[in-house]
Amino acid sequence: ISEREMSVLEIAAALRAAFPREARRAPRVELPNWVVRLLGLFDPQIASNSAELANIRRVDGSSGRQLLAHPMIPAPDATVATAHSLIDQHLVA
Questions:
Q1: How do residues 48-68 score in pLDDT, each as one tens digit?
Q2: 40, 32 in Cβ contact below 8 A?
Q3: Which of 2, 56, 65, 77 makes the best surface tag, with the fewest CB within 10 Å?
Q4: What's the number of CA atoms in the CB half-sphere (13 Å) around residue 7?
Q5: Is 35 buried (19+), middle (13-18) or exposed (0-12) by CB count in 10 A?
Q6: Alpha-carbon distance 88 to 34, whole Å?
Q7: Is residue 80's pLDDT more than 90?
Q8: Are the CB atoms for 16 and 26 separated by under 8 Å?
């Protein structure tokens, strides 16, 4: 549950601001679908996911927010807190 949904680029921007030493590893632009499909010709892992390119998935957490009746922290803050937790648990480097 989050206060709002975020795109991958919004998540990357929040992480770049919080982790400036690792900022170069976060994406800054979205590749056009045709470029991803072209890369899929050479990388089977990319190819196996290319069918999802046209699918835009929206998440609605309003029912969870309503059920909890508690204000949520801002989505960028939640993203950074999650990253810190993953790092603290040695799940990402």
A1: 988 888 888 777 778 888 888
A2: no
A3: 56
A4: 8
A5: exposed
A6: 37
A7: yes
A8: yes
